[in-house]
């Protein structure tokens, strides 16, 4: 029998052609698009056959681009023509050699939230005119049904007893949350690093409740639980302080920068002259004219040694420089995700009705100088006796910490994003 000898060059060519053919096979197909009206918000649903692709989100003026690698378009170029209403001007589906792209053009200023819902084989995009829907991210973040969702419901009423040991120095490791099975889309353990910053400490107690609980203690308890919750997601986490010591605001971001952290999350507790005020706020660095935010920033900036007294020109320079950097939009997106997820998980897991006070910008010195996206989470109001008691409860702290960790994991996984145009 005569053997047919194939030259090495021809073999290499054939292998390259096979590899190219395999690479050109789409991993998923964009098969449907529909639009739903939900109050002031328009909700776009994009359906897929095969795996729901990861998306690469970017903004270009008044357009939001959703890049879908290795995805074939099987819908018309204007799939929602005739159904597009303000604030959405147009929706286009574009095929390219490397994949496809969905382009959503808006009218005027708009807020958006987007999620990859793998259980439904959909990508869902919510769009509303700026400020029209404060909870625009909550519905899709909460229902982004990955196995690492919120804690199971607890029968009402829930009695929140303060921690038996209010001094977290001895709380080196709280009881860890339920184990989480990492799926194929989760990052490998140890890939990302989050620097968690428990606010205040040492001779700086922060604010205080009427029962005597101090912000510095509760912030460290929540931060320690957050570290454990992040590690359950396969995300490395470190604390700027693990004991009751004072660290300057400038040193906190220096610690994060030196460690090469990917995120900086500062944990604080709020206070208000109105004892009826409750809820969760999440801040990212930027300037503001809101009086309540300025008052809060002055309280949190009280220990800003190394920066000296607030100087408008210096701070404005820092903030102007930051607005030219990607960190501002990254931090704003994460802040919205944390605000929506924490409120939803506390409501669902503990049968509560927590106020979502929103993601806001503010001139917080502890966020200045961070080389990575940075947010400050005000977990609740110590000036409200009932909320202060909940904040001192290990059960409440666990659900809160897990919700923040879920938001961070989604942020790294690019399963969810939120922002504005």
General description of the model:
The chain is of the alpha/beta class and 421 residues long. It folds into two domains: 24-133, Immunoglobulin-like; 168-420, Zn-dependent exopeptidases (Aminopeptidase). 29% of the residues lie in helices and 27% in strands. The protein is built from nine helices and 16 strands. The strands form three sheets. It has a six-stranded mixed beta sheet. Strands 11-10-12-15-13-14 form a six-stranded mixed beta sheet, sandwiched between helices. A four-stranded antiparallel beta sheet has the order 3-4-7-6, with no helix packed on it. The longest helix is centred in the last third of the chain and has 24 residues, at 327-350.
Q: What about the largest sheet?
A: 6 strands, mixed
User: How are helices and strands ordered from N to C?
Assistant: HEEEEEEEEEHEHEHEEHHHEEHHE
CATH architecture of the largest domain: 3-Layer(aba) Sandwich
Total helical segments: 9
Uncertain stretches:
1-23, 145-159, 162-190, 292-297, 303-313, 320-326
Within the CATH hierarchy, at the fold level, what is the topology of the largest domain? Aminopeptidase
Q: Give the N-to-C terminal Cα separation.
A: 70 Å
- Describe the oligomeric state of these chains in a short phrase: single chain
What best-fitting shape do the alpha-carbon axes yield?
elongated
What share of residues are in beta strands?
A: 25-35%
What structural category do the secondary elements indicate? alpha/beta
Question: How many E strands?
Answer: 16
- What's the average pLDDT? 75
Structural domain tally: 2
Over the alpha carbons, how many angstroms does the gyration radius reach?
24 Å
- Proportion of helical residues: 25-40%
Q: Please write the CATH class name of the largest domain.
A: Alpha Beta
Output the CATH homologous superfamily of the largest domain.
Answer: Zn-dependent exopeptidases
Strand order of the largest sheet: 5-1-2-9-8-16
């Amino acid at each position: 029998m005569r053997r047919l000898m194939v030259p090495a060059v021809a073999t290499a060519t054939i292998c390259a052609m096979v590899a190219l053919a395999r690479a050109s096979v789409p991993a998923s197909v964009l098969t449907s698009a529909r639009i739903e009206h939900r109050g002031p918000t328009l909700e776009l649903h994009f359906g897929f056959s095969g795996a729901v692709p990861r998306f690469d989100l970017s903004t270009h003026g008044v357009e939001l681009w959703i890049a879908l690698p290795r995805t074939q378009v099987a819908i018309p170029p204007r799939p929602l023509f005739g159904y597009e209403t303000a604030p959405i001007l147009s929706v286009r589906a574009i095929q390219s050699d490397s994949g496809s792209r969905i382009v959503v053009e808006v009218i005027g200023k708009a807020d958006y939230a987007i999620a990859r819902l793998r259980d439904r084989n959909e990508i869902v995009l919510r769009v509303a005119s700026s400020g029209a829907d404060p909870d625009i991210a909550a519905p899709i973040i909460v229902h982004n049904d990955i196995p690492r969702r919120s804690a199971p419901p607890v029968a009402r009423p829930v009695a929140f007893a303060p921690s038996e040991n209010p001094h977290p120095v001895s709380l080196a490791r709280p009881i860890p949350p339920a184990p989480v099975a990492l799926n194929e889309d989760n990052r490998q353990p140890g890939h990302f690093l989050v620097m968690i910053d428990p606010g205040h400490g040492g001779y700086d107690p922060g604010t205080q409740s009427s029962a005597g609980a101090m912000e510095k203690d509760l912030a460290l308890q929540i931060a320690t639980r957050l570290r454990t919750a992040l590690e359950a997601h396969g995300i490395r986490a470190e604390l700027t302080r693990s004991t009751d010591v004072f660290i300057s605001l400038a040193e906190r971001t220096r610690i994060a920068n030196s460690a090469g952290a990917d995120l900086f999350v500062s944990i604080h507790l709020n206070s208000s002259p109105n004892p009826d005020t409750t809820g969760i706020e999440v801040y990212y660095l930027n300037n503001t004219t809101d009086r309540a935010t300025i008052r809060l920033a002055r309280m949190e900036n009280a220990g800003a040694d190394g920066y000296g007294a607030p100087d408008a020109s210096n701070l404005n320079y820092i903030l102007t420089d930051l607005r030219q950097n990607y960190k501002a939009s990254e931090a704003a997106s994460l802040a919205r995700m944390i605000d929506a997820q924490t409120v939803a998980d506390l409501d669902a897991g503990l049968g509560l009705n927590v106020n979502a006070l929103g993601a806001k910008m503010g001139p917080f010195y502890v966020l200045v100088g961070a080389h990575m996206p940075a947010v400050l989470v005000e977990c609740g109001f110590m000036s409200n006796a009932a909320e202060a008691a909940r904040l001192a409860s290990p059960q409440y702290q666990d659900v809160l910490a897990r919700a923040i960790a879920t938001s961070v994991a989604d942020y790294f996984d690019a399963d969810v994003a939120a922002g504005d145009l």
